Amino acid sequence: MNTRSATAGGDVQSAQPDVIVVPRSDATVSARLDRLPPTRYFRGLVARIAIGGWFEFYEMFMAAYIALGLIRSGLYRATTAGLFDVDGFASFLGAFFAGMFVGTVCMGGLTDRFGRRAVFTFAMLAYSLATFVAAFQHEPVAMDAWRFVAGVGIGIQLITVDTYVSELTPHRSRGRYMAFSILVILTSVPVVAVLSFLLVPQRLFGLEGWRWVMIVGSAGAVLIGFIRRGLPESPRWLESRGRADEAGRIVDLIEARVVAETGRPLPPPTAEASRVADERPGAWSEIWRRPYLGRTIMLSCFNFFQTFGVYGFGSWVPVLLYTKGVTLTHSLLYTMVIAFATPLGAIGAILCAERLQRKWQLVGCAVVVAIGGLLFGMARAPAPILLCGSAVTIANNWLIGIFHSYQAELYPTRIRARAVGFVFSWSRLSSIFVGFWVAALLKHSGVPAVFALISSAMLVIVIMVGLLGPKTNGVRLEELSR
């Protein structure tokens, strides 16, 4: 049996011999996508996009696990002599997050202009190659420069992945698919933890172990051809750009795949969902007008302060333990054990994504991070260190699994990437400074002071999301954008 061969958006549209073609509807592509049931086909698309995100999270969390290797090699110091001291480990973190800030705030428009698929590919190549070059640097300034370049690519990729997944999936399962993508992505954390535990203390083929951890992280450049193959452009983006025929051909194939998998005819699009697609050109200034103003303020505050918990804890766990008197080997061991709790947060997000309002899940996760962090700061014995560290890790990653979906669904397709880029850039901005603040607090006040800072930041999230965050579960993207 032959199918129609669509040409837009990539080679996913090539002929599929076992796929049943369904007649095209006059409804918008959004209405056609939103009526589709959850299927293995959608999980496959989301997983393929998530593989690209896997390497970006590997890059982000890698710093925590190679930190002691960088410090022991003499390339960096654990503390800093002052703000922006390039010899301190905080500059390694700061340069990376500065690059992410540039990528999110200055280049988010690339995704809205050139499409989700093309920018997804470009960004993955950029940060993978930059990481490979960084692995062979021997001076802090050169290392920081290449980490900055990698950060730019990852900043662009973060926006693109969130936007891509939210636009390809039906609205009733959007949160669950986003959480599933985060689950796939977060498996990178225990992988980098195990690799660091095995490699950082070693020297292989003349290279220090931490350099091998970075080289593994650059493998995304090799896999991009596989990931890109079979990945369609976002039909919603194509339609918003006035390319309705191309968008329709992609949805034709998606519908055909769903019908072939389920063996059931598709329900008709609802009359409300079938309204004419909005093809107005988007403007960044829209985020400062209703109904988006309150969302922009809330998400900007949320992103600025969430990094205190996610990266203030995640990027410093081995150093925090080492500062508390735990040996290098045990610090890496405890960190590796805690890292294995990472996917549990994403699993929780998958199970509850559509059952509980996403805004209240964010509030609950922030409360757990605040309390668990304070207890971790006071813990000395292995059991409470592992228990509290795991609780904070699970809550942080549950929060990640929910907020990536939450912020992407609060803006219309025409400005989604730019808007998400702007609000997300506040997290990159705060990340530049969090490392220096943590280093200063460690030097002058100790580990408990670090977690007092983290808990205060979590309180801000509880207030802002609780008061200003809209409810989004089960609501179509187009309805949320009205």
Termini separation = 42 Å
Largest pleated sheet: 2 strands, antiparallel
What fraction strand?
under 5%
CATH first level: which class?
A: Mainly Alpha
Output the helix-strand order.
Answer: HHHHHHHEEHHHHHHHHHHHHH
Computed over alpha carbons, the radius of gyration is 22 Å
Fraction of residues in H or I helices:
55-70%
User: What number is the mean pLDDT?
Assistant: 80
Total beta strands:
2
How many separate domains make up the residues?
Answer: 1
Kindly identify the CATH topology. Answer: Growth Hormone, Chain: A
Strand order in the sheet with the most strands: 1-2
The helix tally amounts to: 20
SSE blueprint:
Elements (H helix, E strand, L loop, with lengths): L28 H6 L5 H33 L16 H26 L1 H19 L5 H29 L5 H13 L1 H12 L3 E2 L2 E2 H9 L2 H9 L6 H6 L3 H19 L30 H22 L2 H7 L4 H12 L2 H11 L5 H21 L3 H27 L7 H29 L2 H22 L8 H4 L2
Antiparallel strand pairs: 1-2
Question: Would you mind describing this structure in some detail?
Answer:
- This protein has 482 residues and is mainly α.
- The chain has a single domain (11-16, 24-480), classed as Growth Hormone, Chain: A (Up-down Bundle), CATH 1.20.1250.20.
- The chain has 20 helices and two strands.
- The protein has helices at 29-34, 40-72, 89-114, 116-134, 140-168, 174-186, 188-199, 209-217, 220-228, 235-240, 244-262, 293-314, 317-323, 328-339, 342-352, 358-378, 382-408, 416-444, 447-468, 477-480, and strands at 203-204, 207-208.
- A two-stranded antiparallel ribbon has the order 1-2.
- A hairpin with a 2-residue loop joins strand 1 (203-204) and strand 2.
- The radius of gyration is 22 Å and the shape is globular.
- It starts with 28 loop residues before the first helix and ends with a helix.
- Residues 1-23 and 273-279 have low confidence and may be disordered.
